[in-house]
Amino acid sequence: MHPNERRNVILEQLNKKEKIDIDALAAELNVSAMTIRRDLNYLEEQEQIIRTLGGAILNKPLVMESSFQTKEGKHAAEKRLIARRAVELVQEHFTILLDSGTTTLEIAKLLNQKRNLTVVTNDIKIAAELMDSEVKVILTGGEMQNNIGALFGPLTEQTLRNLHVDLFFLGAHAVHLQVGVTAPTFEKASIKKLMVESAQATWLVADSSKLDQKALAKVCDLEALSGVISDSGIKAYHPRELPELLEVVTAEEEA
Amino acid sequence: MHPNERRNVILEQLNKKEKIDIDALAAELNVSAMTIRRDLNYLEEQEQIIRTLGGAILNKPLVMESSFQTKEGKHAAEKRLIARRAVELVQEHFTILLDSGTTTLEIAKLLNQKRNLTVVTNDIKIAAELMDSEVKVILTGGEMQNNIGALFGPLTEQTLRNLHVDLFFLGAHAVHLQVGVTAPTFEKASIKKLMVESAQATWLVADSSKLDQKALAKVCDLEALSGVISDSGIKAYHPRELPELLEVVTAEEEA
DNA sequence: CTTATTTATGTTAATTGTCAACAAAAATAC
DNA sequence: GTATTTTTGTTGACAATTAACATAAATAAG
Asked: Mean pLDDT over residues B192-210, rounded?
């Protein structure tokens, strides 16, 4: 019997019994009490259980607000402002492509109430967010990146190649005047590049912490973008130097 | 300082600190460890805290288990039993295809501690469940069915056609001796059919309420299955009449 | 297929936490 | 003021935990 199997048995028992006893489990599973103890310590590290004297109980997680536990990350307020500005670009009957990421997730939350809209995404958190809405959602498919919920790989790329959308909201890790938009891995860059190519218009959504940064893999030049939406930090940057064709929108707090 | 005062101090600390330590408290409150222990035992009797080794944590009220609000549906206990029996078929390095549905979601929950496993699915709840695990997850892609989180449509079908897996767990709406496995829409049936075709082995997982039922669209004959896992209700059905090639496993409560 | 390496498990002894029993102290009742 | 109850501290027996090491099993490497 594998350790994982054994741990599953323990969890199963806890679903019925509220509390389990180490010695009883050891006898039942024909292993030493020490092994059970190690299992319990492992499960406690995973925050699945809580150790008690001679046993353990289930660790009931706290209630979460959204489908996913959305711990308020860095620049959350900025992202919300950007998202609010972004949805103004969305018209009825549009097909919209949403990159994976927290900024685009904020956009998804605002699209929640729209109708006659199709959203394509490679982010399962975005899909989950729109699950109970009237928006039509298409997931690209692909291999899921753990802890993030973004889909990557050949399957994703193949889907994107057969796609055309009206509007693409591109999230970025790094944007730079000369270098353009870049991503930390070739895999991500490749996906984003395909997304740009399959969209009629691409708007970059990025809070100011991403500006003036460079990363490994090139996604596209700034010229490929229809516009940029960022928070007021972009002012401290140099909006005048951005190519003229580029409409730069600065999201700001409303009065 | 009154005993009740002291106990309130303990509870206050627990609201901030998640876990408290007996010796530290004893020193801080200038009482013996034994006194703190008695306080903690008292508070545990009141179901306000839970004792751990050398300390205590707050007793949180009951909440949900999974990323999604999984209101305990019909036949939940049966589904869990079936799931437990099903994962016994899973070997390391397997690639497993999971149909969308609540029974297969239960299977996913049990898989989430396994390693060296690849899971393919068209259900975003299953994907979400496995997001924080070490299991490699591949989503088929496709159009998301609202309120359920299952992916359908041509995109899904195309992905399935280019796929081969070791083991497929098929969830069913209706199973019948003569008619075989059926689904309520052609769209769903089409997906399930493709899944059966792309798998080395197909095991049907269905609680007994699904047995002896017919629906509109045919998925496959019983002969196409490698086996069936159901709860004990299947006994009231007619296991002897099932085709001989079919191994029927009945999941039952352990002694 | 064999060997090396990692991982999992068992055993022990030292440490730490727990409990029960009793005694002392404090609070309360009469 | 004394009696009674409640609370607290102390002690020793016992149980659980941990760390450290040894062994076995599984996996990877050659």
From this structure: 92
